[in-house]
Amino acid sequence: MTAESSVSGIVPPVALTMGEPAGIGPEIAAKAFAALQGTLPFFLIGDPRHLPEGVAFTRIDTPADALGAKSLPVLPYDFQTPRVPGVAQAEHAQPVIDVIAQAVDLTQNGRALAVCTNPINKKALKDGAEFPFPGHTEYLSHLAGDAHVVMMLACDALRVVPATIHIALSDVPTSLTREKLAQVIRTTHAALIRDFGLDAPRLAIAGLNPHAGEGGAMGMDEIDMITPLLDDLRAEGLDLLGPLPADTMFHASARAGYDAAVCMYHDQALIPIKTIDFAGGVNVTLGLPFVRTSPDHGTAYDIAGTGKADATSLINALRMAHQMGLARRQEST
């Protein structure tokens, strides 16, 4: 941690990336500052020209300059050309990537508290800069030295972790190895202690098959792999429920019995949280040496520039980044 962030115990601000400038990132950044001003310090890294017309901003030279700012603090990064809402431009691809790396660097050297990322468009980055990563998560893992990372989606009522993510459903059974599932469960357990302040996290583990296999009548994955693994992890001291039928895990009384649910595939995790809180969910990357959150939505090209974008998810992502960052600072002192 640098002197800039440690003098008098001053807490540095959260670093917010611009994301894809043709999307809604610039608009929701401005709305988030208006909503959070005076309660949660953050700064935007990007090109001030990409902000909506009429938005007041303060050009800053260092993250510390964002503290107490009366208008949206922007650490400038030249994207070369203005934005065209809804239309990605090839020349913006590399700056989008560079801004993410800058936010990570500022956070790792203690000048920013955490990273919060606005949405990117993977195809635009691949077309414009030959971006070799499937998305934010994999790039952040690369920047962290190929850390083993896990995706969590969180809202006030539910936290879910998919053990497999963006793969075909037919590929899930072969991808879902004992080693992979164990790593996901352990990473989730550790993050709930480190970043969410839970002394003894309770994890609910979904089965892969309908009715969690129903004793082998609907599949043997639970009997052959999931249950033995959970027994071994319980012997290590982890508090685990399951494997549970996924169709009975997410009603209110069931959710009261655990702190996070580990699911076997993408939709098993994301359908319940998006049903419960479609606008307010937050994407959190667990397992990184720094805190990273993101709104749980895409670039929304179709409404970019219209002023219709809902900033709720970004506001929640900034709040969660701040809270997790404070937990990390407390742990290190």
Automatic annotation (TrEMBL):
Its pathway, per UniProt, is: Cofactor biosynthesis; pyridoxine 5'-phosphate biosynthesis; pyridoxine 5'-phosphate from D-erythrose 4-phosphate: step 4/5
Domain of life, per the record? Bacteria
Instruction: From the Swiss-Prot or TrEMBL record, state where the protein is found.
Output: Cytoplasm
Catalytic activity, EC: 1.1.1.262
Explain how, and how many, cofactor molecules are bound. Binds 1 divalent metal cation per subunit. Can use ions such as Zn(2+), Mg(2+) or Co(2+).
Q: Mind listing the UniProt keywords for this protein, alphabetically?
A: Cobalt, Cytoplasm, Magnesium, Metal-binding, NAD, NADP, Oxidoreductase, Pyridoxine biosynthesis, Zinc
Q: Name one Pfam family in it.
A: PdxA
List residues binding a divalent metal cation. 166, 211, 266
Protein name (record): 4-hydroxythreonine-4-phosphate dehydrogenase
Source gene?
A: pdxA
